[in-house]
Amino acid sequence: MMTLGGQMLCRDEALFQEVCANVLFLIGGFNSPQLNRTMLPAILANTPAGASVNQLVHYAQGYNSGRFRQFDFGLTLNLVRYGSIRPPDYPLDRVTAPVALHYGDNDWLAAVSDVRQLHSSIRNPIGLFRVSDPNWNHLDFTWGIDADSLLYRRVISFMDRYN
User: Fold this and answer.
1) Poorest-pLDDT segment among 36-50, 80-94, 102-116
2) What is the 3-state secondary structure (H, E, C) of 36-71?
3) What is the DSSP code string of the chain?
4) What tens digit of pLDDT does each residue of 9-56 get?
5) Range from 1-15, 34-48, 50-64, 128-142 that averages highest in pLDDT
């Protein structure tokens, strides 16, 4: 449905192209200059990029609990799976790989405060990097017009350095 709708309603010269753009902005944050509207059919065909219902539920659980922990199956199943009525927090102290965190100020799905908290919880952080565009949003990490110059080159340099 998203693929067909994207092709029919969101292509160049389509009357609903701006509606399609605004639907994406409602998901991840507004940043009109970074959206290549010609790409809307492809973006909509790949958004939410294979996320399952349980992934969306897990995101909501984390938001509601304020905790970075495993999936909450409910009291009984948590007891069976985890040996506890509540799911355990992720053991971030066991992450030993070097981690470079990148964030945007306008990311509606990953709050800056959460990224900072994650950064303080990992053992081997190599940096906390703000994308310089103050309107950088969640989807810009993948689809942003300037993602190469504002983000990807730095990420690739880290990959080269730690390879």
Assistant:
1) 36-50
2) CHHHHHHHHHCCCCCCCHHHHHHHHHHHHHCCCECC
3) -HHHHHHHHSSTT-TTHHHHHHHHHHHH---GGG--GGGHHHHHHTTTTT--HHHHHHHHHHHHHT--B-----HHHHHHHHSSSSPPBP-GGG--S-EEEEE-TT-SSS-HHHHHHHHHH-SSEEEEEE-S-TT--TTHHHH-TTHIIIIIHHHHHHHHHH-
4) 888 888 888 998 998 899 889 999 999 999 998 888 877 666 788 998
5) 128-142
